[in-house]
Amino acid sequence: MTIQVKELTKKFGKTTVVENVTFSVERGQVLGFLGLNGAGKSTTMKMIAGFLEPDVGSVEIEGVHVQEDPKAAKSKLGYLPEGIAIYGDMPVHSYLAFVARVRGIRRKELAEKLSEVVSVLEIQSVLTQRVSTLSKGYLRRVGLAQALLHDPDYLVLDEPTEGLDPRQRGKIRDLISRLAESKAIILSTHILEDVEALCDRVIIIDKGHLVVDTTLDSLVEMSNVHKALRLKVNNAHPKDVEEKLLQVSEIASLGYDENDASFRLVPKSGKSLIERIWILADQYGWRIQTLVEEAGNLERIFLNLTSEEEANLSWFSRPNESHARRSLN
Length: 329
Hints:
alpha/beta; Rossmann fold; Alpha-Beta Plaits; 2 domains; 6-stranded mixed beta sheet; 4-stranded antiparallel beta sheet; 14 strands; elongated
């Protein structure tokens, strides 16, 4: 019960946008599909959904070839494009009813199906509005509604939480988590919080090439600051603490934050320093106020794995998190 993507390649003119991309997604899994703008993410997702023909390669959904039998394959798939084209002159209710009919939903099931997605996505208040008058947030929710109407086993979601406020984003994440229990989901997003909250596995694509395919935990461990420690000692002078820490061979780098009087210790090879620090504390009588171990920083990992060294860190975003705090990572 999988989506099988095999050696996908797509060119526009002389430009190769996607080249030899191969991966699979199983039901019960959320795959984060990441890359800089222009890396080939949306093109790959369009080929998976059958909206673009690959020049080379194939996509199969539960063994059904998307290019050879598109109707059967698409019946198993729900697709939310990044820039979804919706008939602007239609009221939302009429648009969803139209999509339901195209999807082959029987008239006697239509009311129930519409009621389900309208309730889940909280779009009751805009059902009579024309699509062209919707805010960006409501437009994304209506787009999600059309992708879910026929209760597909597979979902391809391109920026599903884009334009949503924090409360709405949380509700959509909860929905995706519930759906993932029985569906396979490919999720493209620029929001780091979504990746951390939802994804079991992550693919990174760069200039059309797949450069990483691994679990989220394994990706985090690639960070050169994985298992870094924040250390605050309240009964010793910082200079004395620093002197002792500099003698620890397992520490790759050491920094001090004067704002909160804490040290930041980066270990060699991602090994935990906690036990070593407790030994020092016992040896020198330190009273430790703070000792917190950090996971790797996904922003740094992403930028290290893509070719644009000068890329802006805002490619990933954490809603409501200040740049001052992120700079410590």
